[in-house]
């Protein structure tokens, strides 16, 4: 098990967009229960099955396994809860930390969120100028909730 | 994706018991929804993450991935729906077919079920004398249902 510790912010400008090329992600859920999330994700030519435990503050257990892309396609189209989440992810390195900026499509179009993964819950970091309000504790922004209660209905 | 085609019978005698040594299995569910089952299983020194789709007659899609036993232990104890299923499985070969006889413990103690995996839905086979009533279509006998509605409550 790994521990995922991350903080999440709304994105308030778009000058980060020219820094890197995005990758397109398509993901869905075999379980979207808060304490046992099972996610299938295709990113470029790779696919991953990821299990996440209960969030405690900004930390949660995570188990991740690579799977064949053809399996992931079958699972996404045939088994996962619908609709799927589709987004572009921009990975931006700032002072040794990787910021992941997600630009959502479909019913979540208009939503842009930045996440930074930390090594400890109290780790200090520089917040980029294009980051606004912190939403780490707002469960509406969890991808496993966004497909059920999309941004366009808020 | 593989297709799992199997027929299931109640076991009415115990002379099969002397034929082979059993393996002990401990398994639990990250999703027990009928159309997207996610199962974690430890058998001896190996562990497997298995995804099963919707049952259509006696067939269903199945995707299976080996995972580290230590991960499976964490998932079974920390994330899976409780209680877990514990059983002894006896694998008995009869005329080129493998019969799996499951002897359940815990709240399902007293239940003994035999399954045979087939290559096609209409494949002919010899039913052993210790097999009684067929329960292939009775969803109460699905392991993903047995932990929620155990045999002792029937």
UniProtKB/TrEMBL annotation, chains A, B:
List each copy of the CYTH domain by range: 2-148
Identify this protein by name: CYTH domain-containing protein
What the entry lists under InterPro entries is as follows: CYTH-like_dom_sf, CYTH_domain, NeuTTM/CthTTM-like
For this protein's source organism, the top of the classification is:
Bacteria, Pseudomonadati, Pseudomonadota, Betaproteobacteria, Burkholderiales
